[in-house]
Amino acid sequence: MEKIIIPTCVADNKLNILIDEVEASNNSNNFKLRNYIRDDFFKNKSSFVLVDEDVFLEIIAKEFFFNHLILIRTSGKKIKSFPKSLEVTTLDIPFRFNDLYQIISNRLDLINSQLERAIKFNKFTYDPRTRSLFNNNFSMRFTEKESDIFEYLLQNSNKYVPKKVLLREIWSYAENIDTHTLETHIYSLRKKISDNLTLKELINFEERKGYFLKKDIL
After folding, report:
1. What is the mean pLDDT of the chain?
2. Contact, 161 vs 212, CB < 8 A?
3. Which of 16, 5, 21 is nearest to 108 (CA)?
4. Is residue 47 over pLDDT 60?
5. Which CATH number describes the domain made up of 120-217?
6. With left for phi above 0 and alpha for psi between -120 and 50, is residue 208 left, alpha or beta?
7. 4-115: CATH homologous superfamily?
8. Could you give the CA distance from residue 142 to residue 14 in angstroms, rounded to a whole number?
9. Domain with CATH 1.10.10.10 in the chain
10. In the chain, what percentage of residues exceed pLDDT 70?
């Protein structure tokens, strides 16, 4: 069976050497670490990564979030805050590599159990709990309102959904909400899907008909 690749990026030099040694080893686990330089790492679309504190803080600063992240803590400093939607498992140094392997295995088992409750398409999987749409190569996370729109269009993917229906179902015709707000959210949603998942025609629009989600390309 092909091993699952865990993209890894660490700034600490000693830790970098250790990760390189682990990457070169031929272990019997069903996963393999792959060490990246920072520029290449931040181009990666994987949903599960391993980093140290410096890279983690850069992820937070850039708002570049993954679904699942293992954080190797290289200092005793307390990380003040990070998004609650970001699932982080921490490991303090020094540690045994068997401990790291066990943490990764446990996290992969949890991900697999979560996927059983997720919606699987031909190429992608949608997890309502984390509001994430992903496959082995690409991953993205919706905002709460984006996920509401996506899920409603998904439930009605065999027909056009008029703007007034989305306004009613998503915003309940709130007084401060108009069609411009809906159009702005749809634009952001379509751009995010196009940029992150290279799906340029997932959500379509026709005047007088509304929005149409092409589920068959997922």
Report:
1. 81
2. yes
3. 5
4. yes
5. 1.10.10.10
6. left
7. Response regulator (3.40.50.2300)
8. 36
9. 120-217
10. 86
